[in-house]
Amino acid sequence: MNDSRISGQVRIVGAGLLGASIGLALRSKGVDTIVHDASPGALSLAIDYGAGRAAAAGDAPGLIVVAVPPDQTATVVAQELGSFPDALVTDVASVKGLPLAELRAADADISRYVGSHPLAGRERGGAISARADLFVGRPWVIATGNGESTRSVGVIEDLVLDLDAIPVLMTAEEHDRSVALVSHVPQVIATILAKQLSAGSERALSLTGQGLRDTTRIAASDPQLWIQILAANSPTVVDILRSFRDDLDRFISTLDQPAAQGARRAIAEMLAAGNDGVARLPGKHGQDRRFSRLVVMVDDTPGELARLLAEIGDAGINLEDLRLEHSPGTLVGLAEISVLPEVEAALVSELESRGWRIAEAWK
Amino acid sequence: MNDSRISGQVRIVGAGLLGASIGLALRSKGVDTIVHDASPGALSLAIDYGAGRAAAAGDAPGLIVVAVPPDQTATVVAQELGSFPDALVTDVASVKGLPLAELRAADADISRYVGSHPLAGRERGGAISARADLFVGRPWVIATGNGESTRSVGVIEDLVLDLDAIPVLMTAEEHDRSVALVSHVPQVIATILAKQLSAGSERALSLTGQGLRDTTRIAASDPQLWIQILAANSPTVVDILRSFRDDLDRFISTLDQPAAQGARRAIAEMLAAGNDGVARLPGKHGQDRRFSRLVVMVDDTPGELARLLAEIGDAGINLEDLRLEHSPGTLVGLAEISVLPEVEAALVSELESRGWRIAEAWK
User: Fold this and answer.
1) CB pairs under 8 A, 24+ apart, for A221-224?
2) Which residues of B touch A323 (CB under 8 A)?
3) C-beta neighbour count of A66 within 10 angstroms
4) What family is reported (chains A, B) (predicted)?
5) Of B162, B179, B114, B189, whose CA–CA distance to A203 is shortest?
6) Which of A41, A328, B251, B281 would you call most buried, defined as having the most Cβ atoms within 10 angstroms of its Cβ?
7) Would the CB atoms of A204 and B322 count as touching at under 8 Å?
8) pLDDT for B122-167, tens place per residue?
9) Residue A107: which residues within 8 A CB-CB, separation 6 or more?
């Protein structure tokens, strides 16, 4: 069966994590998916893995997805535009401005090119790590504003929707600024923080908790990939790193004189600014200020939580976010519920009328 | 029944997250646990929550655990030493050198004081966040080298073992150096990184992935607590922050000239040093190792989540943790479920047989 929005053949060039994952997802929707890789070994692995079939004479793909390393992206996109004069070509590189500039410089037919970037990945690369659900619920940027046709953008949107991802339309410039902030700078900072651990004793590191693990997790990422990403987006990344350094200098000079007039207040303000920054993250549990939160006390059994949610459903109220605090040893569990502010009052009275105990919402 | 190593009464002063969690765990082992707090409201919440009983005339605790904010620790420890002349007193403050110095300056009887520090916590405080298993498998430093008796250290070790934590003996100085590296500096860096997000547009932040969430998670921590911790350990924290800044300066100047001779190699070496730092962390990085996690796609409509939980309940499987992640722009929510590893396989097949779609893209 074919339940995809995309019609016709899709050719994927580059059989790594992203290319193979796209192939797995498209084939699961019945799309005739061709996969190609300069490395015969990588190609056969991806085909064995179910990411698609090998290219054959007479292939006429309507859409080509280039999923090669960033510094090869423009070259391969230009080749594919030349080899398939009727195909629309996209790529999935993490930087969008540089490939576009390189394609222009190479005089490629960019009227058939629409760059894109799925915000998804794993620390492990290669087809072996591929999964059809890699993109589920993740944003996928489609770079617009370069004279591409509405129809072309629509085809890429269909691809993104077929992969259960969320299309986000941005110019290449807005994309590169955005990912510098939410992805490239965090990578650099996590890397430098992790580097400091080389000075630590085994005994010191034995005290490591989840906080340090989380803060440094992405520092385990592949250097070869990240050199390319950082170099391709360096001006924007450097701007934000300089702002970070200014704040760090301020923190150091303040903390160096903790007893000085106003020092504690200055530290408190910086810590609060960090709170505010985290609070801006979308869907971040317990932080999203678009929603009102309540904490309902629930007997610590699965049946009780199901009953609570069923009764919220009966009231026609939709949960925006929910978390169960299962606290072994306590007499109650806590269900923290986020709802749209306009329904909070109705939910409170509904729950209280049904005998639920509502604890004070988190600050 | 009483299956604890600790005998006699334990008095806990300070009914916040740590004090209430210690109380929950000791009571589950049958220890006569007295909880006290300067705030009647906090005290009654902790008692309602099961953390212990109120103090009574004739109480004769053999061990007192002071779990108050760092800047009150020395004062309260001195008071307790005075009020209970036969009791051994410990504290759980995140810094060990300063309270000891303050107790010496106050001429307290430190022969009955052994400082300690459980490496456990949560972004949220208060008894309402307490869990009896907060300390399971976590290191718990016992500060030695101040003329305390072997018997006293043994009593604190018994407390730590009763809470299923791991005793680690260190001097106060080694402790403070170690936590600066693995806890205090990561807090500052996460805070400054999160602060940079204030410059980001909503659209930019909509591209946020798990990497940024993890890297900034601890920046949501309580400023009032962290001012005290950072001020109390500032010289050591500042030393490491200066080393971080030197590396950041190097990164910025290199990335500012990415085409310069040797620039890419220098970036690669810094990224590799980050890899090496993460590799030094004990254990697997990632989520709570006590639980297996899976992500189930749930139609974002009233009642769907209730149906999922009801069906998990029907399967006789108990949730350890549950979170609904709202996916902006989609009608699908992602329910992140944590269960004991031994039931994961059964849960997956149960849910799939009932038609639920299981994603793991964020693992």
Assistant:
1) A221/A123, A221/A187, A221/B271, A221/B275, A222/A123, A222/A125, A223/B267, A223/B268, A223/B271, A223/B272, A223/B275, A224/A69, A224/B268
2) 321-324
3) 29
4) Belongs to the prephenate/arogenate dehydrogenase family.
5) B179
6) B251
7) no
8) 766 788 888 888 888 889 999 999 889 999 999 999 999 999 888 9
9) none
Torsion sign (Cα): B243, B244, B248, B250:
positive
pLDDT of B289 over the 80 cut: no
Q: If residue B171 lies in a helix (H) or strand (E), which one and from where to where?
A: strand B166-171
Out of B255, B273, B319, the one facing A238 most closely (by C-beta) is B255
User: In the numeric block, which tokens belong to residue A44?
Assistant: 């056969």
Residue range B232-242, pLDDT digits in tens: 999 999 999 99
Per-residue pLDDT band at A285 (split at 50, 70, 90): very low
Residue from the list B212, B264, B277 with its beta carbon closest to the beta carbon of A231: B264
C-beta separation of A333 from A299 below 8 A: yes
The Cα B160–Cα B144 span in angstroms is 15
Which residues in chain A touch residue B199, judged by CB atoms under 8 angstroms apart? Answer: 181, 240, 243
Is residue B175 within 8 A of residue A206, CB to CB? The reply is no
Name the strand (E) or helix (H) holding B144.
strand B139-144
Which residue has 């070509």 as its token pair? Answer: A89
Amino acid letter for position A141: V
Domains of chain B: 10-171 (3.40.50.720), 178-279 (1.10.3660.10), 288-362 (3.30.70.260)
Q: Please state, in angstroms and as integers, the Cα–Cα distance from residue B242 to each residue in A245, A251, A255, B234, B235, following that order.
A: 11, 10, 11, 12, 11
**A111 Cβ partners below 8 Å, 6+ apart?**
A147, A148, A149
ipTM, two decimals, is: 0.79
For the record, the structure tokens of A269 come out as 């303000």
Give CA B324 to chain center in angstroms.
22
For B170, phi and psi rounded to 5 degrees?
-150, 160
| Closest-approach residue (CA) in chain B for A315 | B302
| pLDDT tens profile A75-107 | 999 999 999 999 999 999 999 999 999 999 999
Helices and strands of chain B, counted as H and E runs? 14, 11
Q: B263-279 and B234-256 helices cross at what angle (nearest 10)?
A: 150
Q: Searching chain B, which residue's CA lies closest to the CA of residue A237? A: B255
**CA gap B93, B232 in Å, rounded:** 10
Judged by CB atoms closer than 8 Å, whether chains meet at A223 and B271 is answered as yes
Chain A residues whose CB is inside 8 A of the B213 CB are 281, 284
* B182 CB-side CA count, 13 A: 27
Q: What is the 3-state secondary structure (H, E, C) of B293-318?
A: EEEEEEECCCCHHHHHHHHHHHCCCC
DSSP string, A120-136: ---SS-SGGG--TTTTT
Give the burial class of B343: count Cβ atoms within 10 A of its Cβ; 0-12 exposed, 13-18 middle, 19 or more buried: middle
Report the C-alpha gap between A45 and A17 in whole angstroms. Answer: 12
Cα B355 to the center of its chain, rounded Å: 37
Q: Do B206 and A264 touch (CB under 8 A)?
A: no
| Cβ neighbours of B208 in A, within 8 Å | 182, 281-282
Which chain A residues are within 8 Å of B300, Cβ to Cβ? 318
CB contact under 8 A, A322 and B326: no
CA dist A360 and A83 (Å) reads 64
Q: What predicted TM-score, i.e. pTM, was given to this entire model?
A: 0.79
Write out the two tokens for B306.
Answer: 């209730």
In chain B, % of residues over pLDDT 70: 91
What whole-number distance in Å separates Cα of residue B216 and Cα of residue B219?
Answer: 5
Place of tokens 């269909």: A158
